[in-house]
Amino acid sequence: MFWLKRNLPRLVIAPSFGVLAWFVYGFILWTIYISFTKSKLLPQYKFWGIDQYFRLWSMDRWHVAVENLFIFTILFLVLCILIGIVLAILLDQKIRAEGFLRTIYLYPMALSFIVTGTAWKWILNPTLGIEKFARDIGFETFTFDWLTTPGMSIYTIVIAGVWQSSGFIMAIFLAGLRSVDDEIIKAAKIDGANLVSIYTKIILPMMRPVFMSAVVILVHLAIKSYDLVIALTAGGPGISSDMPAVFMTQMAFHRSEIGLASASAIMMFLTVSAIVVPYLYSELKREDARK
Amino acid sequence: MQENNYKNLENKSKKKKTIYRWVLFSILGIFALYYITPLYVMIVTSFKSMEEIRQGNLLYLPQTINLESWKVAWHGQGFSAGDVYLKTYFWNSVKLVVPAVIISTLLGAINGYALTKWRFKGDSWIFLLFLFGTFIPYQAILLPMSRTLGAMGISNSIGGLILVHVVYGLCFTTLFCRNYYVSISDEIVKAARIDGAGFFKIFFKIMLPISTPILVVTVIWQFTMIWNDFLFGATFTFGEEAPVQVALNNMVLTSTSVKRYNVDMAAAIIAGFPTLIVYVLAGKYFIRGLTAGSVKG
Amino acid sequence: MANLKINDINKNFGITEVLKGINLDINDGDFLVLLGPSGCGKSTLLNTIAGLEKSDSGEILIDDYVVNNMEPSDRDIALVFQSYALYPAMTVRKNVTFGLEQRKTSKEKIEDALTKVSNLLKITELLDRKPSQLSGGQRQRVAMGRALVRNPKVFLFDEPLSNLDAKLRVEMRREIKKLHQKLKTTVVYVTHDQTEAMSLGTNIAIMNLGVIQQCDTPENIYNKPNNVFVADFIGSPPMNLISGKLIKKDNSFVFSPDGGGLEVEVPINSYKFIDKNIHENKEILFGIRPEHIHYKKSSEQDFEVKLNANLSEYIGHEQIITFDYCNQELLGKFPSTVKIEMNKEMHLYFDLNQISLFDKQTKNRI
Question: Which of A129, A224, C34, C178 has the greatest number of beta carbons closer than 10 A?
């Protein structure tokens, strides 16, 4: 009886932890193992070595996916953070309409990627979307057919993605700006700094932790991009806007290449870990140092 | 300090201030347009007829409010083969969301409570594993999960999806609740223990009543994540059991005869409506949830 | 260095009057302490002097220039904040020189000023550290360095010692006093701690509810408080206030405490009344500080009373004894070496040179 009482917390956590261990970490290990096998439609448990990875990296389609991921992530990161910081600073200026504007900037985050993709698919529609609008108001030769142009389709995903996520980055920067002690601003005013200096020399340098959080979250979102791509371009035209997440699903469920798919999934996992693990480590060190 | 000049300075700085305000509002206004326009276009398009759409352009208001596309988006067109509509799948999502949110939130709360108020060996490591779980790309578990659902006999079912969402939502709910409970004073629990209360009694009588803020945030977050999910829905279900986002995507992709953009837009609004309404009504909590999990200290 | 004049300053926050008709005249080199309980308006007044808040009416003059509409950075003032407000992302060196850089001071002048101040405040070894790597006391000194380096006309301090532990507070208080003696700067210093106020200030302005109750030297504030609020706020334990009547007997005044008879009437002819025409039978409060009640007769003017001791509190070098005086509480402060027996009648002597009388209605000194 006493044993039960003493270990109650552990027993309570145990089911959740068990679920976590099995369905998350156990499954990841399974996927890792399968990536080392020859599995096609069904899993084969004979160890084959790292040939799936060689296969993966020799595929054109994978290269396109990785390149797209690269382009997307960089643009996504830069644009979201730029827009986020600018909007946060502007909103920090004590405006009456702040709540209203914040709602408008953030609502895209409440929508699913499919809804976002569907809306932007319509807006960027080659004949009836922006192109027609621009021509109607006088720009006779305006063309906007990025959606159906192999080289440009990835950029449509950037546009839609930034639209959806930049509000969130604004929200976390605004929270960060607001957490700056009022007395520091007063001291800066007495020291003679103007508004621009206060932001550039004092406040923004204090935003490093927020900046780190933003980068980690955005990169993580970028790597996971699946829903948005499917809704907006389905990876097309052809495979020109393919991304690793789409590649994996295709290989796993439509091409009967689960060994290959697992290898691609593990590549994604490793990339995310490479960014998240150091970040979590440094966060923990900071928390420990504070204790 | 020249006292004769300070009146001048005062006027100059007033002028500068008004110019600043104008620039500020213009930039904010332009961005507001950028964010609002897609929603505006969606709404406006859904009320137009296809003729209007082809002749007019994106931003024109509809000449008459045409409800046809809304009816079609919801009910379909009535013929049996290949008809796509949202009704069944909307309710699938409802059946999925309610249990999944409730279960994952409650479990997250009790986990957060156990991890913060009842320290035991290894609890930091356990928390770390939950935390890391929020970052993993789900591609790494799609295949084994698919096989497991099949083995359990619940593949292609809402029940299976509930399991999936509870499992992967657990990491987020535990994270949120744990971070909240960490900032609640330990003394309350200690006082209750001295008074003789045990683990569960303290949870239900003391912790839960003061957990309203974080429960609201967690519920809103989970609701949004699960309602908006596409990956799990598309991978683990098909046909009649699919949730609403999958149905929406299928609807948009079907190229039966002619592309019906107005129906697509109506369908998108229907699919996005619940989370949008929750955001408008309880947006504060939504934002708090987003920033709480990510900006640490 | 400069003088500072505050003329008729009023300020409201909404409908609450936070500052009412504030008038102060501070001379060059003065150390003025704004003392008062939370919410009395002292910090608001300081912020108004600094230019961080605007007053609704009245004028502020620094060196006889009206500065009301000037930005804080143009008023040539420096402010040391309660939380120090150091810039977290900058080194101590940059923190201290930031103000000078913003004013486009030459590099040599900056270096010069920095060296002088670092030596004075002993922060030279800390120059390349960041604020998060400093202790509370070190941060405090850096905050003072930031203020000193600009050599402003007026120094403002907003409860700078409140965040330090007791021992450090006493040390830093003496450091500040030494600095003031050396540099002879004009200072306005806000605190709620009366010990700080009394030890640091050349003048103290006690505030309550937005009004200055008394602005005077520490000695006058202690010995001749203007009203009941000041008498009660200063002194630990505060001044005894006994309720009673002022009676004229044979051309001289006598204090008759409520609840007492003829035996306990106190002759108060030596008291210097402010208004020579006092009518009799006035209801007053008789004020005497615990340390001015002696257990041995010390001079001829001392008035003897016989009282019972009820309660004794030992504080180390002193003891506080509570007496029953005509059913009113009277506190006395004696060295701990004196043996006091409880519930036994003892002879006590009021030092009549140190009493204060207040009108019971208006609460003002008479």
Answer: C34
